[in-house]
């Protein structure tokens, strides 16, 4: 596989450090933007939370080619969401007061909510980065179905979800279809993106695999058990499990 467009190819250490600084600044900048939109009430709170949900993980994955190949690059990249895990724990336990973060990431403005969805979200991205990195379709499937899929499921479901699912009145046909489509399209998009740098091969079988993972993830998200244990936990678990069966 290719070595990618590192910032300083001749010096992996310097390149990785610059990539770490850049990706951290990008993540913090995006979080800051959505904290301000939440504070100013530009978007309805639930929509603001889902925009954070969609944007952060996908933007971070765009930065992966800046790091070096191999485990060193993966572990350094994982520092960005890894630090966010610590932040979520501190806020959720009440040790750190951060009303802007709570308002932009929680459903009801309760800081204890941070210990569920937002923490699972950060943990999924960190795990995918360390375990699979940019050469595995499993990382793409887990992050894209969590970020784009689950995010658009909520947004579209709230707007057009009048027709509810027969087995879960809290979920709609529109939301589940939107999730499968968004997860699939974003997965294929990142497959092409990483293949441009030689990190993975693109092919019809991989595209079909992404479609299966996205459809199964949408079905899991629509099931009542997913609501009980949190979408941000069940969707990536389903994506990793089915992705492992398909892509391994």
TrEMBL record:
It comes from Mikania micrantha (bitter vine). It is a multi-pass membrane protein. The chain crosses the membrane at residues 12-31, 51-67, 73-96, 117-133, 139-161, 173-193, 199-220. Belongs to the polyprenol kinase family. PANTHER family: FARNESOL KINASE, CHLOROPLASTIC, PHYTOL KINASE 1, CHLOROPLASTIC. Keywords: Chloroplast, Kinase, Membrane, Plastid, Transferase, Transit peptide, Transmembrane, Transmembrane helix. This is Phytol kinase. GO terms for cellular component: chloroplast membrane. It comes from the Eukaryota. The keyword Nucleotidyltransferase does not apply. GO terms for molecular function: kinase activity. It is found in: Plastid, Chloroplast membrane. Signal peptide: none annotated.
